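Can anyone check this?
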Amino acid sequence: MRTYFLLIIAYMINLLAAESYTDRVLVYIDNSVSNFALNNDQTRSNLDELNKKMDQLDALGIHKWLSYARPTDKDGDIYLNRYYVIQFKSSRTDLLNIVDELKLLQSIRFSETMTINKLDYIPNDDRWFQQYYLPLIEADLAYDLWDIDGGEVPGQMTNGEIVVGISDDAMDWDHPDLIGNIWQNLDEDADGDGVVIVQNGGSWTFDEGDINGIDDDGDGYVDNFIGWDFADDDNNPTYPNSNLSHGTAVAGCVSAVTNNDLGVASVGWSVKLMPFRCSDNGTYIEYGYNGILGAAQMGANVINCSWGGFGGGNQSVINTAYNTYGAIVVASSGNGGDDGSTNFDYHTPSGLDNVISVSATGAGDNFNCWATGGTTVDICAPGENIQTTTLGGGYGSMWGTSFSSPITAGAVALLWSRFPSMDKSWVVDRIITSTDEFSDMTSSCGGTSLEGMLGTGRLNIYKALSAGIFPNLTIQTVNYQNDDDGDGVFNPGEQVKIKLVVANGEGWASAENVVATISTDDDRIVFLDNVIQFNNAIPAGGSAFTIIDHILVYALPDAQTGTVPCTVNLTAGTEEPLYSVDIEIDISVSLNQFGFPIDGISVESSPMIADLDGNGYDEIYFGADDDKLHGYMLAGLTQYGFPFEADDKIESSPAAGDVDGDGSNEIVFGSYDKKLYVVSLTGVQELAYEQLDYILGTPALANLDDDAALEIVFTTTNGSNGKVYAINHDGSDVSGFPVDIAEKMTVGAAIGDIDGDGSIDIVTVTYSDNIYAFNKDGSTKNGFPVVTGERFNSPATLVDLDNDGDLEIVAGNDDGELYCINDDGSIMAYFTTGDDIRGGISVADINDDGTVELLFAGYDDFIHVWDPISNSELDGWPIDLEYNSLSGPVTADLDNDGDLEIIAAMKQGRVTVFHHDGTLMNNFPMSVSGDIESTPAIGDIDNDNDYEIVICTSTGLSVIDVKSEGGDRDSWKMYRGNIHRNGVYDIELLSIDMDKNFLPEEFFVSQNYPNPFNPTTLVDIHLPEQSNLNVSIFSVTGRLINTLLNKGVQAGAYTISWSGKDQMGQTVPTGIYFMKVVSGDQIVTKKLAYLK
């Protein structure tokens, strides 16, 4: 479903197919470039890299595209004031090559050609008919909703006014049938007389008492009394010789003064017009997007831009007007192809998101196969023989979708004036859903079917306004009850009761005798009872649900997760004609963990799952674009002390470990604010290490100096440069660091002993195609850097591939080359996919032959499982994911069969799980909301012995609850392999929590320490073999106080903590307690003394 941005593109400006300027390109200066500025003559900038490229290209100069864009005007992380136009001396035949060259610059985020926006309407002065279109859209009936004889005026409100911005060639704003509806900016009324335009003799002029050369209202425009002229950069939107008629004709369709015994009427009646000149001479609309932004900045509720072209467009300007300024936007869909016949080409700005696209019908309510149609068209309105205002105070008859759009724009404004408290989405929905279908919607043009190509139907403003005859029922909520496992989520294989909350719109009739009947053609579910009867009426503005009656539905066990499209028919009424409406809803067959997803956060970092606070339940930590480090726990509850707020967005994935040697973990991450943060488990900042570069990669933790604390290693980037840092918890640099390699690094370091000398080594990969290895004193190891053929966007992994006791370096670059490097820099093995490798390389013994395989994915759309020793992929691999992946694969035994499953995530939001042989796991693939740009993580966050898959996306955090019991096999479960994020595959490290890195030979439980204790005591437990470990606290009477741990674990050394709390989280009284540790047939009990 498209998001509608009411940009009123009233007069159709048709761009010839994909026609673009050949003497200029549009570039976006990357956000990492600070203090960007142009030279005084605007021929060059203060950016040497860009200047050198412009010199090579013989560019004439550079200037800002949207001259009045504010620093706060942005679409996500796209800032409109960072768009610039590079101008050439003459037409260039190599413009596409130039665009590609500019994209390669570090300072340029993207570059593109610039679409030519033209005016293209069809005047037909000899077809001067009456204004048939007003009765056709039932505007005459709509006017009757106002008590006009009693003094009410359609379009006027008790407080405020609705204003339509006209971004066009120019406007003859003193036309006698327009002047009464021209918006006056009274915030620029310097003399306080209540007007800014006055009649002087036989003409209208700006009030001399208000002309002071001061921006009185602080909106960035000086003396902008009625709008703006972007061509001449002044305050009068009339063309100097007043020979451009396009905007004048458009304005008359929107809101010619009505009921004034003069000229034409309009659907908008009295809504206000805000004119903008956006053309140098009327040939093109060079400043159309400036007009959109300017109208939004000046407060237009609706913006009308009667121009466009096939292809191109700028979504960020539209989104800024919509999201930042709350404007409503409507656009003409196009006047077909050059041959005068209907086409279905992509047209902008009408085809952009957040824009209502309007095509044209004729006097007979038919579609005459000349206007543009397509799936982006939302609605039709009359566009043939439209009488409207012209230059010199005259009138004319026009033809084109350019006039369909302003008619719709006027209707939008009139509707909003009637319901000023409603938000723009409500207004858009009412206009688009209150249409009349016409017969040609199911016909064809030139052999192409028009079904689905002309929107919802033809505009009907009366139907949009008249909401009191019938109810307007919608389904407000779909509730799931009594599912089999009681988590409120409808899983495959479950039977659930569904209750519908049905709402009735404000201002509509009360709904009596409501019956809901649901159906679907999808065979994943079966309805056992599909009818709900509502016994009580649903009043206007109210909602209702049934207490007893419900829908009963069953999902098949092998049902693929996702939304099941269903149709709910709602009927209401006690006599004919009954109200009836079909509403499409989605029933979610889901594996979502209870309490998730968490929406409304854009995340590019990879999540970490770990029980850092030792309470027996894993937490989830991740950084986000909202500048925060988030922490969540069971049921989607926020971890105490979180989120922690940095000063800029966090793409760096968090690491965790004891960096200060106090026995507790800390969380470490970097930010775009150029700081490396260390945060306690309660969200308290312990360090903010500031330097001059951005930290995009994940920090890694390792003990470089053999003391009790871990050191922090991280990489930075600033333009094309970067450094490798190693610091202590107190912010002091480790000796020999930072190392300035003058190469950009967007991913973190790997840390391990690559040469078996007992000393830690640091491995980094760079944007300059190199692989570096450093000793722990910062010196470069012999044989490094290793030079490859392309940059690295994926970090290195360290693993002993050949079982020789030292670690090899594995790294994949943006040319699809995967290198396995020995400690002397020589190449041990090599593989190529032909396209970018992204997300990191994970490691697993997939086929259980005693040697590991490397798992990776990227832009070649495949997931690979490669054995570097045999230089071959395992049978059944690679597998086509059908879309590119920015995530590294992760592994776990999800079904407790002893074999590892492989989890792959695609960028477009699809998660797939494969068995070790490449076959799909039941219920997968499944989709999550948003784009996935990081690696998932696997853990058991609710201690129910099945795994959860945690995925961060551009819209939030999703947690998939795998319903089969999981096996406790060592595997690569998160980005960089472990919570230290060191990128090392080491079975012993993966299996042992809390930094205990040895395999015990016998079962052992220590006495707790300290003892007595307050507030926390610790117990060390050594397990020589895999078993289920149960650790519980009992009172002296044998009553169970708390269960600290009860799950299957691998052999290893563990530290269990108890903070004197019972199962309800309440602090226990002072006294003696017993900790009982059970592992298989081994049982040990320890006495604990708790003191308050």
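Reply from J.R.: I decoded it. The first helix runs from residue 48 to 56.
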